[in-house]
Amino acid sequence: MSSFIVDRITADGTSLECDVRPSADLERFVTGDPFRIDYDRSIEDVPEGILAIPVLANVCPVAWANGADVYVDEVDAAFARALEDVKASLLSMYDFLEGGTLYARRTIDPEMSSQPGASAGEAAGGSTSDPKSALLFTGGVDSTCSYVRHREERPTLVSVRGWTITPDPSDDEKWNDLRARVSSFADERDLETAFIESNVLSALDHPMLLAHYKRHVDGAWYSSVGHGLGLLGLCAPMAYVRGVDDLLVAATHWDGIDLEWGSRPDIDDHVRWTGTRCHHDAYDLTRQERLDLIADYVGTSTPELELQTCNVRMDGNCGECEKCYRTAVGLRLAGLEPTAHGYPFADGDYDEIRAALDSGEWVLGQDERHMWGDIRDRVRETEPSSENEAAFFEWLVEADLDELVADSRPPLSHRLFRAGARNAPTRVYNGVYPALKAAKIGADRVRSRR
Prior knowledge:
Elements: E1 3-12, E2 15-22, E3 35-38, H1 48-51, H2 53-65, E4 69-76, H3 77-93, E5 102-108, E6 133-136, H4 141-150, E7 156-161, H5 172-188, E8 193-198, H6 200-203, H7 206-213, H8 221-234, H9 236-242, E9 246-250, H10 265-268, E10 272-273, E11 276-281, H11 287-300, H12 322-333, H13 349-359, H14 366-379, H15 387-398, H16 401-406, H17 412-423, H18 426-438
Parallel strand pairs: 1-4, 4-5, 6-7, 6-9, 7-8, 9-11
Antiparallel strand pairs: 1-2, 2-3, 3-8, 10-11
């Protein structure tokens, strides 16, 4: 029977560690490294049922992709019910997911007696008092918009290392840059911060997950399937310690875009555990409308606000990647000068954008297709301010965005490598894993940094 066993959960000071033991048929999806998560406050007093949440939130989707069950000694009852709801959403979204059951020896709910031996999905959740909010935050368009919307609540700003910034020492500088930037943003507004570091995507064999499932999704494993539940779940011990009752995650997409994506209202709004509920925020605003809201905030409160959205750097924006160019154009359409908010940009760059989109230089998905479509809708209502801008606007209005997406694909060598890894015996795959990792085929660099 296919299964994962979550075992030996320990909390030592600020560090959480546990083992995940797969059945033989699932060994290729884990590396054998213990799951580790580091927080910036002690978690030694956090109940085991809450401590189990970070690993369950990341392992369960892998189990559901293989029709496998997951076993754990203890789990918070509210989170057990949340997993059932999230599983239903993901199974309705993806045909390749098969489902599975979480079994716990004990489901813990302060308002209910324990239920030894029960299927964990049969329990219900609890609540807490003394409300406090927190927001997953990087300083990008989406999370900054959510901060502006909820600034009266004074949310704790939460940043996570383990996805777009890996735990590898080569990413130390990026993590330090993000921490410094978020801390500065928080200090200027007298907000608290929380920083979380995890090896979740190296404890899970993410290159193998990508090799197996990339053909089923538009993005990659974590962006398309796991990151809403996974990132929120990593926050559970932090939220328990800090008394956070409302945990916000900023929307990437918006109402009317029905894309298969790992963070959506029908996923994130289900996630909960005793004392905390999670919410998918600003789904009612398009990306351009979020920039409009930020522009209003800049005009009334923070004229020197800088955004950070770059897919290449964390110490500023490169100004040359697709995300930087797209954000710079959006800022102009919102009435802001990109150079004043972190983006080197000049009129001549419109020619660079058109050339890159026309040539398929950028690997685009349906995600970006809708982002550029949103820009195009605003372009139709905007008077260009220069000849270059007018020429670009005219081209964009007539461009076939579906064709631009279809013409951009990962290199054939990457697709062949994934197919080979997918079909190789585990022993053979383990031999080529270092090369696979070095080629960054497994890197899930999300295209929409929050």
